[in-house]
Design brief:
endopeptidase fold (from Nostoc punctiforme); six-stranded antiparallel beta sheet; 2 helices
Length: 143
């Protein structure tokens, strides 16, 4: 895959409806989309965490789970000189709280899902996301 090319599987995950605690193709929340992609594209079953928060308004508990799960194995924080690749996971802040994530589908694009919207592909360096990007993580299965 060329550096600026979007992963061939990415479009399959565009347009999925938002659903609290969703972990299936008929509805996902942001982390549910990560779980869905990892299962069907990489054969990796990630921990669900759906029981760890009431809904997406529960940003503090979501942030806690995201931060705890991103420290150490099986996730590795990419260094600034490393280029993101399809399958890496972007961790983003909303309202100053690290409570959102998306799957990189190219070095600069992620697929993600927000409440009240369907999943979409957006640029991580766009005006909306550039200042909210806290880090990009690679799962050990993608090394």
């Amino acid at each position: 895959m060329a550096a600026n090319e979007t992963a061939s599987w990415a479009r399959r995950y565009v347009g999925i409806e938002f659903r609290e605690h969703g972990r299936a193709s008929y509805g996902v929340d942001c982390y549910g989309l990560v779980c869905l992609i990892y299962l069907y594209e990489f054969g990796v079953e990630l921990e669900s965490f759906s029981e760890c928060y009431a809904d997406t308004k529960d940003a503090a508990n979501i942030a806690k789970q995201m931060l705890l799960s991103s420290v150490g194995a099986p996730w590795r924080h990419l260094e600034e000189n490393e280029e993101a690749k399809a399958g890496d996971v972007a961790l983003l802040a909303i309202g100053g709280i690290l409570c959102h994530c998306g799957v990189m589908v190219s070095p600069s694009d992620m697929v993600h899902c927000l409440k009240d919207t369907n999943s979409a592909i957006e640029k991580t360096h766009s005006k909306m996301w550039a200042k909210r990007l806290a880090g990009i993580y690679r799962h050990e299965s993608q090394e």
